[in-house]
Design a protein that fits this description.
Layout: E1 4-13, E2 18-28, E3 33-37, H1 44-51, E4 59-64, E5 67-68, H2 75-82, E6 83-86, H3 98-103, H4 113-126, H5 142-153, E7 160-164, H6 172-189, E8 192-196, H7 200-203, E9 208-213, E10 216-218
Parallel strand pairs: 3-8, 3-9, 6-7, 7-8
Antiparallel strand pairs: 1-2, 1-4, 4-5, 9-10
Helix pairs in contact: 4-5
């Protein structure tokens, strides 16, 4: 299990004209399932991007598993091993099949092709996509692309799963199904989940709700 700690984290854009995070201090213990709630523009996506190490804070400290992320080099390898990210928009590689997209993060660790493919097929099957594994992203529906992105995020069995409005492009029933799978995965593997959502039904699946407004944690 890996704790996530943010200590007085500030994130500015456009030369500090946009103050997205204004001194966020937050701890998510390893294995906790958390929903991040707040209006559009409140800082939810920025907070997840900083937690994921894909965006660097302007000031403050981010610690994962007790280590300052600045010391976790190479950072892309650390991220691939420990963090799975489900984006609001799928960001699949259009020239790869759904199966190949799920295999992609496993290639960082040079796993044998046979092992990668078997695991990718299993993950797609759990997302109800066994019959679409050889299709390209532009040949399947938006919800199927998003489910593929969720499978990809879990490919390396991450210790931390970050999800930014992960069901925004799927119907309610499918959204609850796939989020239940992610929550079950995290509980079974003692992984942390931080999910930004406007959906209170999804928030009900989590252990704790965190409200962010105007770049600050409330309460």
């Amino acid at each position: 299990m890996m704790d996530i700690e943010l200590i007085n984290v500030v994130k500015n854009y456009d030369g500090a004209l946009v103050k997205a995070l204004k001194g966020v201090t937050l701890t998510v213990p390893g294995g906790e399932i958390v929903s991040l709630l707040g209006p559009s523009g409140s800082g939810k996506s920025t907070l997840l991007n900083v937690m994921s190490t894909m965006d660097r804070q302007t000031r403050g400290q981010v610690r994962i598993g007790g280590k300052d992320v600045e010391s976790c080099r190479p950072l892309d390898r650390f991220r691939a091993r420990h963090i799975g990210f489900v984006f609001q928009f799928h960001h699949l590689m259009p020239h790869l099949t759904l199966l190949e997209n799920v295999e992609l993060p496993m290639m960082v660790f040079e796993k044998m092709a046979r092992i990668r493919r078997k695991k990718a097929r299993t993950l797609l099957g759990r997302m109800g996509l066994s019959g679409k594994q050889h299709s390209f992203p532009n040949c399947v529906a938006g919800g199927e692309r998003q489910r593929t992105a969720i499978a990809r995020a879990l490919a390396n069995q991450p210790d931390i799963v970050l999800a930014d409005e992960p069901t925004g492009n799927v119907d309610t029933e499918t959204g609850l199904m796939v989020m239940s799978y992610i929550v079950d995965y995290c509980r079974q593997n003692r992984a942390s989940l931080i999910m930004a959502t406007h959906n209170h039904e999804l928030a009900d699946l989590t252990d704790r709700r965190i409200l962010i407004q105007n770049g600050l944690i409330q309460g």
